[in-house]
Amino acid sequence: MKSCQFQRARSPQQKAERRAHILLAAADFFSRQRFESIALTDIARQAGVTKAALYRYFPSKEALFLELYLNELEALAEGELNKALPLWEALADVLVSRSLFCRLTAILHSVLEQNLDVGQARTFKLTLLQHFAVLGQRLQEHSPFPPDKIGGFLLQIQQAIIGCWAVSHPAPVINKLLNAPPLDVFRVEFADALRAQLKALEAASR
């Protein structure tokens, strides 16, 4: 990704474009590095802004990645599910194809929500609730659920993503050990694990 010049955004359109550039740069870094190793200075440089300017849009690295997560969730909620497939399978296909969303979900509670004040946390959770409502409606359109169970099903999906991502993406040294017998029995493929979890969750939620 090419960076642009350090010029102050003044119009609402310019500010929206600058915000989008910052989010795109953050996504690019996150696709290649662990969250802990990403520096806001590098994101700012790639987005074409100063670090001070970046802080005008996002007060912390966590706030930046929370918005990136919400953008990914919104795209997921507005996407189409393959109605020719069972719900669990259609949903698994979409989630597996959205690696960025799954990676962010995996660190949502343990990392991204840890450096927020009460106001930021409340705003994030309310926005999250809105996106969950849209996603729940999408799931209902695909395969109707009992109204009192759809919310719990969505939370269980989130938990399944977190768990499956954690066990299928071990630390680098462990990952190397799992490449050969006898330790390869511990290797877990994210897509396979998530499909199994979602199939079981849907069956249990009916």
Automatic annotation (TrEMBL):
Residue limits of the HTH tetR-type domain? Answer: 16-76
Question: Would the keyword Transcription turn up in this protein's UniProt record?
Answer: yes
- Which keywords label this protein? DNA-binding, Transcription, Transcription regulation
State what protein this is by name.
Answer: TetR family transcriptional regulator
Q: Does the keyword Transcription apply?
A: yes
- Organism whose genome encodes this protein: Alcanivorax nanhaiticus
Any single GO molecular-function term of the entry would be: transcription cis-regulatory region binding
The record ties this protein, via Gene3D superfamilies, to: Tetracycline Repressor, domain 2
Q: Which Pfam families does the record cross-reference, listed alphabetically? A: TetR_C_34 (PF17929), TetR_N (PF00440)
Q: Which domain of life is it from?
A: Bacteria
Q: Kindly indicate which segments of the sequence are annotated as binding DNA.
A: 39-58
